[in-house]
C-alpha cells in the first residue's frame, strides 16, 4: 500500500503566487533592478569589467524578458478603462480611466521597444518611442498617486463620521463604529502603501526623461524596493493573506 509523500513545507502559497504573471514579473523586476544596483556598485568598487558586464547583461536580459511578458497587455488596460466608466465617484472614474489609458500607451510603446531590442525589427525612431513610453508610464503613476491622495481624503471624512458613532450611548452603535474604524484603518494602510510605491516608482521615468538626475545605484535600489512591495501585495492577493 503506497502513501503520498508530502514536502516538509507548504509550497501551495508559493505555487499560487508563481502561477500569476504579475507575481513572476515582480520577482524578475526585483532581480533586474538589483542587478542594476550591483553593476553600479561593483564598478565603483573597482571590480573587473567582466564582473560588471555580467550584472549589466542580466539587467538587460531580464528587462527584455519582462517586455515580452507584457506584450499584449495594452488590450487589458483598455478593457479596464472601459470598465472604469461605471465607477460612481466622478473623480475616481476619470482618474482610473486616465491611469488605464496611460498604461495602455506605455505598454504599446514598450512592445515596440521589445521588438527593436529583440532584433526582430529595428525602428528609426526608437529613442522617441522610449521617451513616449516613459511619459505614458509617468502619467499612469501620477494618475494612481492622485487617486491615492483622493482616497485618503475620503477615508478621513468617513473616519470622522464613524468616530461620531462612538459618542452614542447604545452599545450596538459603538460596536458598529469600532468595526468601521478598524476597516478604515486597514483600507488607509493599503492606500498608504500604494502611495509610497507610486511615489518611489515616479522617480524612475522622471529620471529617464531627464527631469531628475538619479544615478543607477539609486534607481536600482528604488526599483528593487517597489518590486518587493508589489510582490508582497500580489502575495496577499493570491493567498488571501
Automatic annotation (TrEMBL):
Predominant subcellular localization, coarse grouping: membrane
Subcellular location: Peroxisome membrane
Domain of life: Eukaryota
Any Gene Ontology biological process: peroxisome fission
Keyword vocabulary terms for this entry: Membrane, Peroxisome, Peroxisome biogenesis
Cellular component annotations (GO), alphabetically ordered: peroxisomal membrane
Gene, per the UniProt record: PEX11_1
InterPro entries: PEX11 (IPR008733)
Protein name: Peroxisomal membrane protein PMP27
Gene source species: Dissophora globulifera
Keyword Cell membrane assigned: no
Amino acid at each position: 500500500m503506497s502513501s503520498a509523500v508530502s514536502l516538509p513545507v507548504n509550497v501551495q502559497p508559493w505555487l499560487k503566487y508563481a502561477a500569476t504573471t504579475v507575481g513572476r514579473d515582480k520577482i524578475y523586476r526585483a532581480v533586474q533592478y538589483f542587478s542594476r544596483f550591483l553593476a553600479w556598485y561593483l564598478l565603483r568598487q573597482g571590480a573587473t569589467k567582466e564582473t560588471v558586464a555580467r550584472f549589466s547583461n542580466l539587467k538587460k536580459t531580464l528587462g527584455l524578458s519582462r517586455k515580452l511578458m507584457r506584450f499584449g497587455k495594452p488590450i487589458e488596460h483598455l478593457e479596464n478603462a472601459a470598465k472604469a466608466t461605471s465607477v460612481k465617484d466622478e473623480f475616481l472614474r476619470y482618474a482610473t480611466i486616465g491611469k488605464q489609458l496611460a498604461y495602455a500607451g506605455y505598454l504599446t510603446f514598450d512592445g515596440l521597444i521589445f521588438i527593436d531590442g529583440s532584433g526582430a525589427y529595428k525602428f528609426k525612431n526608437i529613442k522617441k518611442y522610449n521617451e513616449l513610453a516613459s511619459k505614458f508610464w509617468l502619467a499612469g503613476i501620477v494618475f494612481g498617486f492622485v487617486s491615492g491622495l483622493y482616497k485618503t481624503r475620503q477615508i478621513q471624512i468617513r473616519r470622522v463620521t464613524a468616530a461620531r458613532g462612538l459618542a452614542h450611548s447604545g452599545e450596538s452603535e459603538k460596536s458598529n463604529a469600532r468595526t468601521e474604524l478598524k476597516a478604515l484603518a486597514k483600507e488607509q494602510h493599503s492606500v498608504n502603501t500604494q502611495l509610497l510605491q507610486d511615489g518611489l516608482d515616479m522617480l524612475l521615468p522622471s529620471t529617464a526623461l531627464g527631469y531628475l538626475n538619479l544615478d543607477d545605484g539609486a534607481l536600482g535600489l528604488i526599483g528593487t524596493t517597489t518590486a518587493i512591495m508589489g510582490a508582497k501585495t500580489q502575495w496577499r492577493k493570491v493567498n488571501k493573506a
